[in-house]
Structures are given as C-alpha cells and as structure tokens.
Amino acid sequence: MSVRTANNEAVVIREIEEVWNSDGDLDVIDDLVAKDVVYHSPMMDMEGRDEYREAAKEARTIFTDLEMSVEDVVPTDEKVAVRYIVRGTHSGEMMGIEPTDERIEMTGILIDRIEDGKIQERYDNADELGMFVQLGVVELPEMEEFEQ
After folding, report:
1. Among 60, 106, 38, 112, which residue's Cα sits nearest to residue 82?
2. Least enclosed by CB within 10 Å: which of 11, 24, 25, 26?
3. List of E strands, 19-129
4. Which candidate, 62, 70, 53, 57, places its Cα nearest to that of 107?
5. Residues 13, 96: Cα–Cα separation, whole Å
C-alpha cells in the first residue's frame, strides 16, 4: 500500500470515528473535510464545510447515541470506499417525524474522493428505507403481493 493510499484511509476512518459518532468532535471537520466539499446521497445533497458540519450536528440531535462503525475499507491513491453500519436511537425530530425512541441499524457505503489530504467529495448510499421501516413510519408490502 502506498503512503498516499494509507493516508487517505486514515483521513476517512478518522472522519467517521470523530465526526459522525455521538461523542465525536465536529471541530475536526476543518482538518479532514475540504472547504468546498460536495456530499451526494439519495436523501440530500450538500455543498461546503458549513452545510456538512450542520448535517453532522443534526444527525446527533436526531440520534443522540449515534454510533457509526467501519466494516470494510477499500483505499486507493484517489478514493476510499467504506462499508459501514450506523446504530442509534431515534430521539429527535427527523423530516417531520416525531421521535419514536426506536433503535435503528442501517448499513451503507461511502465513496470518498480525497484531495490534498481532505475529503473533497463524498457519495453516500445508505439503506434509508430500512431505517424508516425500523422506525415504523413505512410498511413494506408482503411478498405474496408481488407474486401475482
């Protein structure tokens, strides 16, 4: 593994552990995330470090015991892919949904592009539908309904 690849992996792992976990430090965003970062996900897109910081802060108010664990990492000299699991208790309002106090476990994959030692662009694909099912706000049809 090249030094650059190892450094990129370290940036992403540190960012996940220190920013997205409930006891993390949002100030490290300045060290790890580019000022003009672009974040893409099915539920939202955001641009800039300030929006990024606000999203992390909001996630912690929605899931006050938020914990994000890294399950797999595939680093390269330019990008880092991560398979993760997020766990937490829905204890704050989210998208007009009052707190349910339900525990969630959501899997996802991040692909981060690193420039100059900082996350410049992130693609996040998480199982939000599964999360909404766990919260009881979405009900999936029974499989028999699809067999007809």
Report:
1. 112
2. 25
3. 33-40, 45-47, 67-75, 79-89, 103-115, 118-126
4. 70
5. 31
Residue 145 lies in a domain: no
What are φ and ψ of residue 65, in 5° steps? -110, 30
Q: Is residue 71 part of a domain?
A: yes
pTM score = 0.89
pLDDT in tens, 100-133: 999 999 999 999 999 999 999 999 999 999 999 9
Tens digits of per-residue pLDDT, 62-74? 998 999 999 999 9
In a domain, 66, yes or no: yes
Does 133 fall in a domain?
yes
